[in-house]
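Help needed: design a sequence for this.
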């Protein structure tokens, strides 16, 4: 059960930033004893893979903080983030960690379904981000892009680490983030409708 929660948390983080959980798995496996990747996933800890992921992460973090570019990036990432979610769910749920010492039973039947599950999980935060970011930019005259992006990056890092160390805490944090994000977005929407003179819809 914990291996599924680990995969869920990593896939959720991928929905916010495609590269942080992939890079996290690779770095933790290569440089610590907290995580051991399953057979076939050792490419994640390869120096070239880590370098490419690090470069892509830097580009993502810069572009995602620029109004208008962030929305264009979110559209392009509609393929990348879910794919990353599928990869990290598959790799994370099959890895040995400090919390999960025997993950094989969860994934030994098929490698296909963990990937599909990860894709679907990552789509949820990605779609929420894709819909919310233009509204945030409009309501904040663009200032909110860098703030929201920074919050999302920090959340992705924290969830990735907690997914390995404390999966249940990671799950609780994800639930809190979703509840907070939905409530905050509804407040922004209602404020926008109030400013335009349109009655708010509950």
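Sure. Designed sequence:
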């Amino acid at each position: 059960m914990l291996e599924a929660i680990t995969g869920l948390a990593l896939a959720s983080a991928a929905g916010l930033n495609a590269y942080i959980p992939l890079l996290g798995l690779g770095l933790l496996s290569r440089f610590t004893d907290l995580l051991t990747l399953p057979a076939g996933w050792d490419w994640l800890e390869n120096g070239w893979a880590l370098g490419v992921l690090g470069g892509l992460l830097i580009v993502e973090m810069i572009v995602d903080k620029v109004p208008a570019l962030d929305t264009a990036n979110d559209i392009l990432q509609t393929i990348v983030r879910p794919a990353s979610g599928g990869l990290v769910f598959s790799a994370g749920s099959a890895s040995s960690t400090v919390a999960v010492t025997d993950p094989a039973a969860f994934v030994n039947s098929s490698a296909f379904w963990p990937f599909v599950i990860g894709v679907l999980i990552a789509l949820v935060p990605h779609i929420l981000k894709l819909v919310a970011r233009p509204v945030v930019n409009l309501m904040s005259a663009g200032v909110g892009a860098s703030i929201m992006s920074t919050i999302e990056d920090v959340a992705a890092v924290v969830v990735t680490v907690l997914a390995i160390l404390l999966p249940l805490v990671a799950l609780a944090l994800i639930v809190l983030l979703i509840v907070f994000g939905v409530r905050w977005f509804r407040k922004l929407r209602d404020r926008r409708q109030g400013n335009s003179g349109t009655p708010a819809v509950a």
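DSSP finds eight helices and two strands in the chain.
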